[in-house]
Amino acid sequence: MTGATVPHGGRAAVAEADKSTWAAVATMYRLTAGHRSSIAVASVLTLVGSTLGLVQPLVAKQVVDASGRGQVIWPLLALLGTLFVAEAATGAAGRFLLERMGEGVVRQLRLGLVDRLLRLEMREYDRHRGGDLISRVTADTTLLREVVSQALVDLVTGSLVAAGAIALMAWLDLLLLFLVAVTVAAATVVVASLLTGIRNASEHMQGSVGAVAADMERALGALPMVRVHGAEEREAAGIGAGVEAAYGAGVRTAKLASVMSSAVELAVQGSFLIVLVVGGLRVGGHAGSLGDLVAFLLYASYLVLPLSSVFRAVGLVQRGMGAYQRIDEVLRLPVEPTAPQIPKDRAPTLRPTRPSGSREQPVLALRDVHFGYDPQRPVLRGVSFTVPKRRHVALVGRSGAGKSTVFALVARFYEPDAGTLLFDGRPATELTRGACRRDIAVVDQNTHVVHGTLRDNITYAVPDATEAEIRRVVELARLDEVVDRLSGGLAAVIGERGSKLSGGERQRVALARALLARPSLLLLDEPTSHLDAINESALTSVMKDVAQECALLVIAHRLSTVQHADHIVVLQDGRTATGGRHEELLVSSALYRELAASQMLRAGGKPGTGKRGRTDG
């Protein structure tokens, strides 16, 4: 994972420690790593501007006293104007640096999240909803930008400026300062009592927003199904429940924040009125000068901004922690390892070497493989077979037999619970997942076609492919007619999820993309499921040609796919039941004969008498 700082320690420990404001501030500060110089410069500029502001009441005091004595005051007025302009200029420069720093932190977090999400273990995608994960990259990081760009510096500079104002107020009149301190202390008690509620409400709001994003992604991803079944109102109601939850949490956050803001405003305004009344009485009784009262009132009014910024920053930090908790959850999710996972009790084996003329290693071998997505519910209970180089091997079996799970293991999306996968004779644990995938291409039933041009989709695995290479796979996958039909040919935009293509055309695009990578092993999950009889026959011919270049492992549901395979592996209940050629299995295997006679293996795509249903394993 790159570009993000992740606090150390257990998840529960973090949650408990970060309940305090200081721990939350420390966590937010850690996010600014790499931007500390900008924070330092911005803080200095802000302090300089604030200091210039603190000097202005003293100059105003001199103006009032000099005017009372009939002295010339225009030089003092010029100085006051200069101080005002200088304060505005330094403040603007400091704020720009802070905003730029905030954007930099958000960029850093988003890059880290994107990198993390693209590398997560596949099991994590089974446990989390995609839309909710995406919202953590967008909505949650946006909330954090305001925290790191404003709240942290406001806490420091606001506290220092308030301390300076209080010191000068103490120098002018201790009694009036005491009265101000009492009202501010009352506001502080109110603010402290609201912080935990603000954080919890903010966290609930961000979670609800994430749920809305996940529900929207689900509905839009299946929009044809939603429309056909007239489920628009039902989906809108379900998503609306998440919107209402976000609204409720947002209103609660706003209510607590408004109470906090009102408490601060009442304290400041109350202290100002007390100073005005008590100070005025003291001036009338000759206990102080009018200039001192004016200066004290100005400092009391100047105290409003730093105190308000401090209280606001504290509330904002707690809201930011609600968002950061969700970001931190993603940053802690496990990613795929980049190094070989060699068992500690076994030394790595060397790539086997064989004398000239000896039998070469199969491109893939499974030896007594066991696996379950849930350890308590195994899917594979002992699968063994090999895929020789440049051979066509078919996997058949009833739905749930484990066929698609075998593909997921071969693609290294998951690791076997027991048993061994070998690539070119080497155990998978001695190879990185990237090294295994470089020699593999996959075409599954859920053909992944992304928004972009036809060329973009075909060259996804090989972006720098030549025109000759592209033309070759277009012809192999029988995409010539599609290229000619689309306005723009290969440069035509095919829409979101390939909406401008038919199911069969999308499958052929995926096949062309796979062939362009020139894999050693091509995995095909029912490649003829979306093809008509003519294109199915053409693809069968293509598979014969492809088998001359690389090995084929095919999940097959049709006789046209199976009967031309060099070897057929029959799976039953997660185990390898038998294997052989089509003609042999028709004689030796009752299970295979049953599959061949039923809808599971239908000749030429024509319906049989068995039950219809999805047949991936």
TrEMBL record:
The keyword ATP-binding appears for this protein: yes
Record carries keyword Transmembrane: yes
Residue ranges, annotated region (Disordered): 339-360
All residue ranges annotated as the ABC transporter domain in the record: 364-598
Major place of residence: membrane
UniProt keyword list: ATP-binding, Cell membrane, Membrane, Nucleotide-binding, Transmembrane, Transmembrane helix, Transport
InterPro entries, per database record: AAA+_ATPase, ABC1_TM_dom, ABC1_TM_sf, ABC_transporter-like_ATP-bd, ABC_transporter-like_CS, P-loop_NTPase, Type_1_exporter
ABC transmembrane type-1 domain ranges (all copies): 40-319
GO CC term, one of those recorded: plasma membrane
Transmembrane segments: 38-60, 72-98, 151-171, 177-198, 262-281, 293-317
Any matching Pfam family: ABC_tran
UniProt topology in membrane: Multi-pass membrane protein
CDD domains, A to Z: ABC_6TM_LmrA_like
Cell location: Cell membrane
Domain of life: Bacteria
GO molecular function: ABC-type oligopeptide transporter activity; ATP binding; ATP hydrolysis activity
Family assignment from sequence similarity: Belongs to the ABC transporter superfamily. Lipid exporter (TC 3.A.1.106) family.
PANTHER family: ATP-BINDING CASSETTE SUB-FAMILY B MEMBER 10, MITOCHONDRIAL, ATP-DEPENDENT PERMEASE MDL1, MITOCHONDRIAL
Listed name of the protein: ATP-binding cassette subfamily B protein/ATP-binding cassette subfamily C protein
Organism field: Streptomyces echinatus
Lineage: Bacteria, Bacillati, Actinomycetota, Actinomycetes, Kitasatosporales
